[in-house]
C-alpha cells in the first residue's frame, strides 16, 4: 500500500542515481495525479496541504512562534520535478500570509494543469541543521466546481431574539480575510440604513481554520443594558423590526480568482432571551437498542450552531464516550446523534457542558446580560439519563 503521506528527504534523493531519483519522483507524482495519493504530505514543521485546483493555495502548519517566522524560510514552490530541484532555480512568486499557525502561500499566477511542481519545506524549529523535504505536485485538469458563494448564515431561523450575539457565515470556498467590514452590512428594512457599528471590530477576524466560516459578533455593548454603547446608540436589533444581514457581491476568494455574488438573510426580531437554559425543558427521544437510530433532543430554545454540535457528549453506562455524528435541525432547536455502531445496553447518558450557549450567549451558569452581583451557577455539566427502547422484533 502506498503511504498516504509522501515526503522524500533531499538527503535521500542525493544518494540515488539521477535516473532512479527521477523515476521515483515521477512515480510519486503520477500517483498523486491519478488519485492514488491525496494532495498533502507531512513536513517536519507540520501538515502540508497542497492545492487541488489551478488557483489554489499551499498551506503549511508550523510549530513554535509563527509571529517571528519568515514564511519563505519554511515553504517555497518551484516549477519542475524534485529530481531537478532546487539549486540554481528561483521559487515561484506569490503572496505569503498567516492564518493562526498556518503559513499560506498564494502563487501570483495560476498553476498549469499537468505541470510538475516541487514544494520545498524546511523544519526551522529543529535543533541542528534544518531538514528539507521535497513534495511533488501535479494539478489535475479542472473539474466543474461551484462558484464561490455564501452557503448559509446561522442562526438559520426567520425570527431571532433581540439579544442574539453571534452570526456564522459559511462560504463554499476559502475567502480573503480582513474584508468583512467592507462587504457585510446589517440593514434596517424600515429605514434602509446600514448600522456600521452593529458588529464587533477585531484586529484579527474570527475565521475557521479553512477560512470558510466567519464568526460575526454583535457588539455586546449594544446588547447589555445600561452600558455606554447601549445608552448612546441603543440596541442594534429592536423587537418587532425586520433586518437583513447582507453579504455584498465582489468579496474575493483566498486566491482572488473567484468573487461571490450577493447574499441576504432577512429576519424579524422577537423579545430578548433573558433566562437561563434548563435541560428539564428539553424533550429527549430515545432510540431502540441494537439499531443505529438517532437519539434526538428538542431544545426549549435555539442554541449556538457551533457549540450545540460540540457541547453534548453521549456516554454508555460505564461513562465511556460513544462515537457518532451530530446533526442539527429545526433552526438549531433539534439535536440528533447517530451512533457509529448500533446501540448496546439499556441506558446511556447525555453529558451537557455548562458553557453551552443559546443564540443570546446565555449558558447554564449565567446570562450574558446579568445584573451586577448576580450569583453564577457553580456547575460544570448537566447529566441526562436516557433509557433505550426495546430492540425491534
Commentary on this structure:
The protein has 3 domains: 8-138, Immunoglobulin-like (Sandwich), CATH 2.60.40; 150-270, Sandwich (Immunoglobulin-like); 279-387, Immunoglobulin-like (Sandwich), CATH 2.60.40.1220. 10% of the residues lie in helices and 32% in strands. The chain contains 6 helices and 24 strands. The protein is globular, with a radius of gyration of 26 Å.
Descriptive labels:
mainly beta, Immunoglobulin-like, five-stranded antiparallel β-sheet, 6 helices, disordered N terminus
Along the chain, the helix and strand elements come as EHHEEEEEEEEEEEHEEEHHEEEEHEEEEE
What is the fold-level CATH name, i.e. the topology of the largest domain?
A: Immunoglobulin-like
Low-confidence stretches: 1-45
CA-atom Rg in angstroms: 26 Å
Q: In a few lines, what is going on in this structure?
A:
This protein is mainly beta. It has helices at residues 10-15, 18-34, 180-183, 220-223, 228-233, 307-310, and strands at 8-9, 40-43, 46-49, 58-61, 75-79, 94-99, 102-107, 116-123, 131-138, 150-154, 159-161, 166-171, 184-188, 206-207, 213-217, 242-247, 263-270, 283-285, 295-298, 312-316, 324-329, 334-339, 347-353, 381-387.
Write the layout of secondary structure elements.
Layout: E1 8-9, H1 10-15, H2 18-34, E2 40-43, E3 46-49, E4 58-61, E5 75-79, E6 94-99, E7 102-107, E8 116-123, E9 131-138, E10 150-154, E11 159-161, E12 166-171, H3 180-183, E13 184-188, E14 206-207, E15 213-217, H4 220-223, H5 228-233, E16 242-247, E17 263-270, E18 283-285, E19 295-298, H6 307-310, E20 312-316, E21 324-329, E22 334-339, E23 347-353, E24 381-387
Parallel strand pairs: 11-17
Antiparallel strand pairs: 1-9, 2-3, 3-4, 4-7, 5-8, 6-7, 8-9, 10-12, 12-15, 13-16, 14-15, 16-17, 18-19, 19-22, 20-23, 21-22, 23-24
